[in-house]
Design a protein that fits this description.
It contains seven helices and ten strands. With 207 residues, the protein is of the alpha/beta class.
Length: 207
């Protein structure tokens, strides 16, 4: 097996240190070894890639296969991606397109299953995702979580369709992503108690 390697200052993010070392990988790009080499004098920094923790790829006006390469060039190797924008237009077919297109590039897209298509019952869109459709998406190994549950009034009121989506994710141990800016007190407690474990939205520093 042909191996390639690079020597430099390696960032050990787990232990919060840099050390002189060598990284080796095989022809498929899989890292096979990381070794300390205190005697080396190459000061090139070698770090793990960054992860964009929340993004809508569609907002870039690029398909995933075009979105990934420039991210890699900037040191970003993965995204947690919610495809609800394309789902609002094309439904399940749009999500499946994103999954297939993303497979063309060596960039990790952790896609979620959109939970709010349309975002609220007051909106109209090109498609609608039922709890059954979302459950089928969640069963796909390329789908990592239930995307941001932005209909927080629906969660607080325990809307049946929404709760079925959340339960489908919990039943297969996939995370449920939140979206509840400004929610406080008992409403926030009720929202979180539904099984929602994250939230990337806030209005204030304190929040």
């Amino acid at each position: 097996m042909t191996l390639r390697s690079r020597i430099g200052l390696l960032a050990d993010v787990t232990n919060g240190r840099f050390f002189r070392g060598q990284v080796s990988w095989d022809a498929s790009g899989i890292i096979t070894a990381i070794e300390e080499t205190p005697e080396s004098n190459n000061d090139v920094f070698i770090t793990p890639p960054l992860v964009n923790a929340h993004v809508h790829v569609e907002s870039s006006m690029l398909v995933p296969s075009r979105f990934g390469p420039p991210c890699l060039a900037c040191g970003v190797g993965a995204t947690v991606s919610d495809p609800h924008e394309i789902a609002n237009v094309l439904g399940v077919d749009g999500v499946l397109y994103m999954l297939e297109n993303a497979s063309q590039v060596p960039f990790h897209f952790a896609f979620g299953a959109p939970s709010c298509v349309p975002a609220t019952c007051f909106e109209t869109a090109g498609a609608e995702l039922s709890a059954t459709a979302v459950a089928k998406l969640l069963a796909d190994p390329r789908i990592y979580y239930l995307s941001e549950v932005m209909n927080y009034p629906g969660v607080i009121q325990r809307a049946e369709n929404l709760m079925q989506m959340i339960e489908a994710a919990k039943n297969i141990a996939k995370p449920v992503d939140g979206h509840a800016p400004g929610l406080r007190g008992k409403d926030l407690e009720r929202y979180a108690s539904a099984g929602i474990s994250t939230d990337h939205e806030c209005f204030t520093y304190e929040e």
